[in-house]
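For the sake of clarity, the format in which proteins appear in this thesis is described at this point. The record quoted next illustrates the convention:

___
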Amino acid sequence: MDKNTITGFVLIFILVLVYGQLTKPTPEQMAEMRMQDSLEQIRQLEEENPQIANLEGTPSHTDNAPAYSENDSIRLQQLSGDFGPFAASASGEEKLEVLENEFVKVTFSNKGGKVKEVLLKEYFKIHTDENKVESKIELKLMEDEKNHFEYLFPMANIPTGMISSEDLYFKPSINGNTIRFKANMANGGYLEQVFTLLPGAYEMDYQLNMVGLDKVLARGAKEVKLNWITYADKLEKNTTYERNYSTVYFKAGEDDPSYCSCTSDGEEDADGGSLKWVSHSNQFFNTTLIAANSFPSGKMETKVLEVEDEDLKLLKSELNIPFQGGDSETFAMKMYMGPNEYERLAAIGSDFQEIIPYGRSIFGTVNRWIIKP
């Protein structure tokens, strides 16, 4: 290579460097480019899940106004940091849906995709006003705002290490007496809860579908935890008896049904064994989860509240939902929400009728085998 050729290459290299410096975007232009990239991510999320447009402080898209702002990008980044793949389902507005039959009217919330309250059509509770005048009012189960029914998902790269289903807004769809709640993920997967209210019954078929969670759950996760908390309401005039007979009942494996202490704070553990069903029961009504197969394990707890408290007791169950690491997994259950009627509970099976308190020792025997028949 001669001297002229080398000189030519050097000049070309210098010209390329000079051109690059002259055409380099300014810091302001670079910031604008990053903003456009972020806004494009928002647009894609909105197409996949329209409820992302409901982000707090985010105006809806119109042809006559800017659809997005820098605040939108910041908000999306915050949601992505807190909720990871569920960011698009982490913002929205609560909306209620209803299923009903001749016995119950069940109200659901899209926030958490859960039961918000259950109205028992054939029962009432007595309300006494300040003048000692009594009147009948509607009897509802699961309606206390302090209650919780949430799935806790162990997640990698999330500050809390956990995402609660109660923090997500599910998209509902109704077909007959079946309602589906779906929370989409950015990877195409989703979490879905399916409720089917049975005709002429106080029961619902209930199914949890987990699709694509194997790609986002913390490595080695073998279970999802169901955190169920109920503040037992005062339904009867005699709250002393009602308090004593309100507790958590459960059936572990092939054992006879058992329960937490009725008269004091109590805690029970399945000791690593499986649970067929767990019931949060008042004196005459209960709400129960019955696994199609079984819950691998769980812990149950009761806490007696003060007499002047508006509620009787705090009932708590922590149930483990198995996760085998598959791309698509389903856990099937049944939910009962109704009266402690012996024949009705016995028809469900698995010794469910044993939540009815007959009393202890000889009195329990007499009540069960002589008085009840």
